[in-house]
Amino acid sequence: MRKKYKDLPLRSGVGIVVLNKENKVFVAKRIDNKKNFWQMPQGGVDKGEDLYEAAIRELDEETSIKSVSLIKKIDGLLTYYLPDELLGIIWKGRFKGQEQQWYIMRFNGDEKEINIKTKHPEFLEWKWVDIDEITKLVVTFKLQVYEKIQKEVKKILVN
Fold it and tell me: Which one-letter DSSP state was computed for residue 76?
């Protein structure tokens, strides 16, 4: 990490693993990434906002999904750091990475509910994938976060 950015704080964030009835995971391709990387819904927490409420808000803002039930809050915060080429660019240069609280949720609705063409769209397309696929689709700097999430989800799917 470049010296001038090491003192920047981490952004407070949330992430959501959305599982359908077949235990497939919702992933979407970001508009601002030209490569074939996919991610789960995630985003920042507003000042004073409850983390779970932020997760529900982000999920709705990014995917229009409202029909979910909480399966599990993943223990601890997961952190990733931006690569040097994105430092000073993403989040207007105010943060060096993100510290996230992740939630595993069950999608209980009809797929017609899912709409990524939102007011401020972030995604080009979406799909359901096996839990083993998420670490093959994610951008490199988020890989260790997705590996941890993958382990947590697999624990639930076994039980």
Answer: S
- Domain of residue 101, CATH code: 3.90.79.10
Structure confidence at residue 35 (pLDDT) = 83
Measured CA distances, 69 to 53, 54, 58, 104 (Å): 13, 15, 15, 9
Phi, psi of 104 (to 5 degrees): -105, 125
How does 48-85 read in b/e, with b if 16+ C-beta sit within 10 Å? eeebeebbbbbbebbbbbeebeeeeebeeebebbbeee
- Domains in the chain: how many in total? 1
Say how far apart CA 16 and CA 51 lie, in whole Å: 11
Asked if pLDDT for residue 13 goes beyond 80, the answer is yes
Which position has the higher pLDDT, 145 or 119? 145
The contacts of residue 45 (CB under 8 Å, 6+ apart) are: 12, 13, 14, 51, 54
Report the distance separating Cα 63 and Cα 126, nearest Å.
9
Domain that holds residue 137: 3-158
Mean pLDDT of 121-128: 95
